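Homework-ish question, so no full write-ups if that breaks the rules, but can someone show me the predicted structure for this set?
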Amino acid sequence: MSIKAEEISSLIKQQLANYQEQLSVEETGTVTYVGDGIARAHGLDNAMAGELLEFDNGVFGMVQNLESNDVGIVVLGDFTGIREGNSVKRTGRIMEVPVGDALLGRVVDPLGRPIDGNGEIKTDKTRPVERKAPGVMQRKSVFEPLQTGIKVIDALVPIGRGQRELIIGDRKTGKTSIAMDAIINQKGQDMICIYVAIGQKESTVRGQVETLRKYGAMDYTIVVSAGPSDPAPLLYIAPYTGAAMGEEFMFNGKHVLIVYDDLTKQADAYRELSLILRRPPGREAYPGDIFYTHSRLLERAAKLSDELGGGSMTALPIIQTQAGDVSAYIPTNVISITDGQIFLDSDLFYAGTRPAIDAGTSVSRVGGDAQIKAMKKVSGTLRLDLASYTELASFAQFGSDLDEATQSKLNRGARTVEVLKQGLHQPETVEQQVVTLFALSKGFIDAIEIEDIQRYESELFSYMTGNHQEILDEITSTSKLPEGDGFYNAIKEFSDQFQGSKQAAK
Amino acid sequence: MSLDKMTIAKRYAKALFELVVEQDQLDATLEELTQLREVFKANDGLTSVLTGAELSLQEKQSLIQALTHGASPYVTNLIQMVFDYGRMNEMVAIIDEFERRYDSKIGRVHAEVVSAVELDDSQTEKLTSQLASRVHAKEVVVSKRIDDSIIGGVIVHTDKEILDGSISSRIEKVRRLLLK
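A: Not a homework solution, just the prediction itself:
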């Protein structure tokens, strides 16, 4: 076949005849005020709340306030290039961020742009940043456990997939470390993790990313970071961006763990921009809708019904308190929104109990549903033991003559506290936790000196993997405690030949 | 909290507008107000002199007399009232707002046309009629401006919209596309 010049040129002529230049029609307004991350513009009569606007210099903004004469806009980027009198145009879109697998292993800003220097993120899917949370019929109750790898959490305040568990405590009590360990422990669990750093120092975020990379956790993690020097609007939208990225996976049937570190700073950022937008201040100068800001965010964490693929998004919001004051405005708000809280105590932290989780005030409203059966068995009385220990311990300080029962209770309590200590970035598998807690509940650890407990634990587990792998396998596969005396005898065998450091020194 | 300029201008303009419509003095009033605006635009310092503290009240009053000289009672009253309430800063905004109300009543649209070369009469005529049908207006008042930096085509600025058919913006679009 030959090319027929005539045919082709007639085709081209036809196309050229129909070719019309597109005239760009844009609805515009004029900037009348700009400063501190927000702008006001006159005009833009048809702008919608939440709509994305574009300024002359290419910076985007989001419509927040619609007033009789002007609109209040939060500037999502550098506002220093915007001047009074500049024009601002509507885009007709609401704010969206890129989502999808290509984001895994990346560090992005709240607009989804890479900030890790590893080049462009190639993804063609986007999701709106603000989205209504799944409704009643789209959900299912939480039943699968999310293993954080931290004994005290998995035993006392178990977290289920799709739950919202608050991590709350003063500064420097290890809030972020708990979240990090939870992310690290998701390796090989077919989980996607999203770490949203809001107002965290860039150097800290860098450190966290390095930690995650070192433990191979970056392969399944997205880090969204809005630094302290970013304008307040970016800090405000960062958690919504993270949630949008997580929803993409959740609605594809995957399990997602999202950490908001921390919502106190997001509330502060929102307070800042609300005040500049001249919204009336309420308690602690937060705007009236600060509760809704957090509740609509956390409500997006869900366990989806089977028809929707059964995906889940577990949220671990972090809140920083001042001097242990949980009755401040933001902490009480978020406590009431979430399905429980992990309370970190600075006194415990400095006394060397790390993670410094206060077993008395930490709760999980999902509770036992999110534990495997074996764990439920061994951790049943743990909370009571701990509670009675702390009560007795404060009494026992005054008197020396104690009866045997009290003595043994104190003994057990001190060992329980010791057993629940755990090093940084040393998550334990659920079998390992079950073995240790089983040994504790059966009283094997009572005979061990406190300083030997950590060693006993690790040696016991390596003994079990070496000699009784079948027991561990049984726990993993049936998720129940093995029947019969095999398990008990195995631990007894080990305990009998365990030598404490004092004995060894003799 | 003090009211902003727009809110004040809208209130005064609305009151005056409704009054003169009732009295059937609309066109004449607009004509006078346009003249008044010219005066304010031609004399930069006028507003600040009238609102500032350099002149005594009497001296200001005599300036007002000069402004109201020969004006209709409605406009005279407006000027006097705006002065009495210390809103002289908002005078131009009030007139602008009045004109906007007038425009929307008779279906008139103001448009600024920016082109690279001077448009001849037939081109202007064509553009005006096209524009009128596009924005559903009965009348389009065109003010022309030459700006050779747009290379070719025209940009039309109306009150709320920009219709951009310039070569420069298309080149910019191509540039963004290529850089993406």
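Now go work out the reasoning yourself. Hint: Residues 5-103 of chain B form a domain with the Peroxidase; domain 1 fold (CATH 1.10.520.20).
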